[in-house]
Amino acid sequence: MNTWSDMAMTQPLVSKMLTNSISKDRVSHAYLFHGSKGTGKLAIALLLAKSIFCKNKELGEPCNKCKDCQRIETGNHPDVHKIIPDGKSIKKDQILHLQKEFTYTGLESNQKVYIIVDADKMTNNASNRLLKFLEEPSKMATAMLLTENSQSILQTIRSRCQIMSLQPFNPSLVQEKLQEKGLSGANAKLMAALTNNIYAAMKLSEDEWFANARKLVVQLVEVLQAKPEESMLFIHNHWMPHFKERDQLHQGLDLLILWFKDMIYKHIENEDAIIYVNHMDKLEQFSMHWSRQHAIGHLYKIMEAKRKIDQNVHPALVMEQLTLQIQR
Q: According to CATH, what is the number of the domain 207-327?
């Protein structure tokens, strides 16, 4: 989404507020873009940066062709600085380095923009340092903080930002756009259930690892249903070697959640809501094995397993326990 017109289709309120500010030359010194994953926080931040620097914009719309727009798009603009977590957090030294950059005169103008991705992951020291930075705003500097969890950011920082709440995309809209890009109806429906980020969905649909992950989820449910005594071997010989990283394991559990949701939809005869439309025969078979109450119970167990993964419980132990719980 490279234009405000495109952005208005998915984030109409935020787009209108920002374009009004741009047209009136009243861009705030600090913004906090808050929204769930895939709602376009970084895309909006980059679009706003283009609108600030583009010399050929019309009615607030950047041209997307000039040197400034192109360098912002590729991450090479000398006066647009992006900070991302160093490991699991954003550290004080990163903010200090940013402040040092801002003491220098802009290379091509006096305007500067900085974008802090996952701003909720700032350490206490980094947050306090940023607060001091925000307390002395420059008319020529614009801060953009991006977060999925605004409540984890210091209230004193939030109070100095204009908060922009981004709304989740409508899954049907995501599915429609994915089909326009060439995905089948079944694949588009699955991807839209997993993410509302069009780019991430397309990338995922082309990922061989993810294709194998989908197969393994189906196989796991088949083993749990037909050969429960072999489920532990399956977890250790097939599941864990594939889902090696915690993020990958989360993705596998998300796919498993969709399976048990589909079983519930099958039980209540809401087939339009079913995601795994290419496996209706298996869903029919599985729903005869697990009652609706069982499927609901297993959903809660899978979500609890995801919480344990976040709490750094050993992944293999989490999967062993989950497997035993579903077998009962």
A: 1.20.272
